Structure formats: C-alpha cells, structure tokens
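Quick question, first post here. What does this chain look like in 3D?
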Amino acid sequence: MTKYTFVSTLAVTVALGAAAQANTARDVINGYADLALAKYSDSLATARTLDAALKELVANPSEATHQAAKEAWLASRVPYQQTEAYRFGNAVVDDWEGKVNAWPLDEGLIDYVDTSFYGEESEENGAFLANVVATPAVMIGGQSIDASAITPALLQDLHEVDGVEANVATGYHAIEFLLWGQDLNGNEPGAGARAYTDFDAANCTNGSCDRRGEYLIAASELMLADLEEIVAAWGADGAARADLDGASDAEGISAILTGLGSLSYGELAGERMKLGLILHDPEEEHDCFADNTHNSHYYDAKGMQNVYLGTYIASDGAVTTVPSLSALTAAVNSDLDAEMTAKFEATMVAMQVMKDRADSGVEAYDQMIGFGNDEGNAVVQAAIDGLVDQTRTIEKLVAALGASEITVEGSDSLDNPSAVFE
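> Answer (accepted):
Ran it through. Tokens below.
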C-alpha cells in the first residue's frame, strides 16, 4: 500500500482553543476510547452468543442447530465490523486485529477443499493443503506439527505458520469457512453449502467430523479470549486507552483521523472493494464463504460514521453517546462539519443501495463485481466513490483541528491500477 501524509497548517492551540466552549479535544479523545469500549464489548457479547450456538451445533448437529450457528456468526459481524475504524491509528489494535479478522485465507490449511476450484498446489504456501482437521500430524516447512489434539494453543501456533499470511487458522473467517464451506459458485448465485452432517459423527460426511467440531470450538474459544483482550485494552487501565492518555491532544486527534482516513481510502475503498472490482474476482470479497460481504462493507462504513458523530447503537439496543469529533469540528468551522457529515451520509446511502440489493436477493456482492455486470459494478463503484470523497474531507480536518500530521494508507487499485496486473 502507498501511504500519504497530510500536514496541518494551523497551530493546535488555535483550533483547540476555539473548540473549548463546546467539547475540548481531550473530551473527544476520551469519548473516542469510551466508544471503542462499547463496540468491542458488544463484539464480545455477540461472540459469546456465537460460541454457545457453535457448541450446540457440535453437541447436537442438525439443520436447525447449523442454521442457528450461521445466524449467530452473521450477527456477530455487525458490531465487530464497526470497530475497524480503530485500526491504523491505534498500534494496539492494528497489532491485535490479525488474530480475529485476517483474510483472505488458504482454507486448505484447515479442512478439505474442492481442488478443482481451489487448486492442487501453491508455490508460496507449503501448508496450502495441510488439512489440519483430517491430519493429526501436519507437515509444514519440513517439520511435523503434532495436531492430534485440536486446541486453542495449536491454532495459535498454526496461525500464519511458516510466515505465510494466508495461513489463517483463527478468527471470524476460519469459523465462517467451517460453518459454510467453500463458495464454489464463482460470480454465480449461491454461498458455501456445507452440510450439518460434516459435524455429525454418527452420520458423518467428508470424514473427521469429530475433529471438525473440535476445531470449531477451539477457534471460538480462542476468539473469545482475543476479544476479551481487546476489551481490556480499552478499559480504564488498558494499553490502548493508556496510549491515548499519554498522547498530546494533537496526537490523539491524529490517531482518530488516521484510523478514519486509512480505513476509508486504502483499506475499504481500495483493497477490499476496488481491487475485486478491477479483477472481477469473487475471491476478493471479505466474507466470501457466507456471501456476507455487503454487510461487512456496510458496517465498516457505519463504524466510521459513528466515530465521527460520537454515537453507537449496540446489538441489544443500548445507545452510547460521547463528545464527538463532529462537535469539535463545528466549533472551529461549521461549514466543514456540515461537509463531513454530508459526505459520511452520502457514503451510507450508496452502501445502503448495495446492501439492499444483496439483502433483497437481487444478487450477492460477488455477483455485483462480476465481469460484464455493468449495473452491479456501478453499485459497488458508487460506494467506492463515496469512500474516496469522504477521505478528501477527512484530510481537511487535519488542518482544521490542528493535528500535526496523519498518514493515510493507499492502494494500488486506486492509485496505480495498472500495477494490479503486474
């Protein structure tokens, strides 16, 4: 990714002094941390509900328990995706995030795959077809790894094993793959179609049903521990909050804007959306096994908007409201706040069109980005355009609020599209 640095032209004391009659910068920084705690706590709560559903599926496999587990996974993604605005600007989050949301993954590391679709080998990944579920002793990088007991500790050791980022053994997407299986439909209708009998030792399909259930439970328990870690990090004595407490007001505001700008531009508009649209590749979608990518992108965008507005509605309906970046901006430049608020809303309108198109059954996200689908492509491009446009205004906030500088992640797919094909 390319990185772009935006430098303020105003002294921090000017902007922050003007804003003091409303909320101070420190009020906003503290509120930003409180909002993070609310979002990650909600993510943990929904992950606990998912964990219970997964354990019920493994204990009593059936169509009903399988469907309940999939619905619990989908529900767990809603709050988690809204936390991604806390990446990039907060080192504690960025260092941690790969344990729970790494993608894309070479799913052959985890379980059986259809090699006619997936491939027979990979020059980059020696664990491409390791199939831990079916293999008690896994050979990776010339070494034998004891996988006879599938535990959270084993999955930690396997995650990005052999230095390969595609060896994703943990987190939401490992669980997603185990619940749905491969999506073999390309740009045609349909998600993964794993049968519940893949978890039914008494009526087992595709072998190793007991170990597949063990992997699912281990992955869930590890994800709970990881989410508990990040909730603690945003607590009163946590590392993420301490970083902000130790930062100057200018640095704290910079952290907020860095997270918003980098997620908006390089990560979401670029790597997660424009790249797949350029390649028309269904493998370049975030929640690819479940065909949930439209929601993943929608709630990423929603998470950025609610950071700016200082409000979050949890899964149980509880509302958290904190001193907002919007109010801080309005005290300095009301026109700029109106512009920023409108840009976030315009992006959400475009994202809603995409979400409604998928939720109504017209077509899933992987169909929208398909080659020759001009209408679907245009829907996705409109959301990308909204994200790029809102980033330009986020950059303006740097000067208005006196943040010394921010570095925004770029993406070849936006900045140098020809490089995508090199």
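Confidence is low (pLDDT under 50) at residues 7-21.
The first helix runs from residue 12 to 19.
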